[in-house]
Amino acid sequence: MIERNHFEEGPTPRPHQPWIETPLVESTVLSKIAGCRIFLKLENLQPSSSFKSRGIGNLMLQSIADREAESFSRSTDTNRPLHFYSSSGGNAGLACVTAATSLGYASSVVVPLNTDDATIAKLRAAGATEVLSHGDSWFFADQYLRETIIPAAEARGEQGVYIHPFDHPAIWAGAGTMVEEISRQMPCGERPDAIVCSVGGGGLFSGIMHGVDRVGWGNDVCVLPVETRGADSLAQSLQQGQLVTLKGITSVATSLGAIRVAENAFVQAQRPNVTPVVLDDAEACAACWRFLDDERMLVEPACGASIALAYAGRLKHYLKDIAPGSKVVIVVCGGSKISLDVLNKYKDTYSERSEELAKQYV
């Protein structure tokens, strides 16, 4: 667990960490295409198949630690069972369920009504105690969870713990551990010139900014937070100079579908080393099928948005001083909301459009 010391001298042994150290690999193929050195941080290899395992896992460890510390300080044991609750139509819920199962706790997820059957099946297969459907979007699913489900659980005698998908300091600290790994994994102790990451609610981006400060890189490393048009709450907020709430999500990259970005992400994005990027759905989807061909990895469009910068000269467009020796880390954030059938449908839909968009970077 990050930035907490409850388990150093606690009443019970510290639980295991529900995320892993992931590889950082230099991609020969993408480096040649991008015209610089491309390093891939393979967060798609996390237990939940996405970076969410880090931040949500860390928040859950903190919740367990707080409970144990409270029990220990009072010299009593609480008999109320701990139960984790998440609201998510995909990766955050899966990270919560995967971590809770590995730690030996119950977990429930409330998903929006438009969540596909495959995602619900994955949540149940991962060990969810219950998967409930409510509301037309994550906002309403989350509201229902906080105002109805958790109070009902408390009334039954449970200790319900709310796990936010992205907006919590423990989540940012957990996500930031990948930067500490990158600092150890970069060849010859070098630092990257830039880090590319996708942005939905802003948990990953906030974690990256937290991490670059922790390792002492500060504003010396450029960070490119990438959104897709139709899920670009961060970019629109920066354009208007205040937090913006989108009317809805129209992008196919639904894992980036937070109608309002976390305030911390909005603040961090105003730092001088941050260059926000907004791409079209077609660009994100095209990156997914090209990445499958080039690296034999299947990722969803929310991840493809970041990978897209390695293709068609996009990095040179957004980083004017990029050179063959420049080192760029792309966070392969992964994601579970993809299959080969779905990817083929994206290819049929967006192939022509993606080729048109690629010409603007040449």
Automatic annotation (TrEMBL):
Keywords: Cytoplasm, Gluconeogenesis, Lyase, Pyridoxal phosphate. Pfam families: PALP (PF00291). Pathway: Carbohydrate biosynthesis; gluconeogenesis. Its cofactor is pyridoxal 5'-phosphate. It comes from the Eukaryota. GO terms for cellular component: cytoplasm. Its main location: cytoplasm. One of its GO terms (biological process) is L-threonine catabolic process. It is found in: Cytoplasm. Its EC number is 4.3.1.17. InterPro entries: Ser/Thr_Dehydratase, Ser/Thr_deHydtase_PyrdxlP-BS, TrpB-like_PALP, TrpB-like_PALP_sf. It catalyses: L-serine = pyruvate + NH4(+). GO terms for molecular function: L-serine ammonia-lyase activity; pyridoxal phosphate binding; threonine deaminase activity. Residues 20-334 form the Tryptophan synthase beta chain-like PALP domain. The keyword Transmembrane does not apply. Belongs to the serine/threonine dehydratase family. This is L-serine ammonia-lyase.
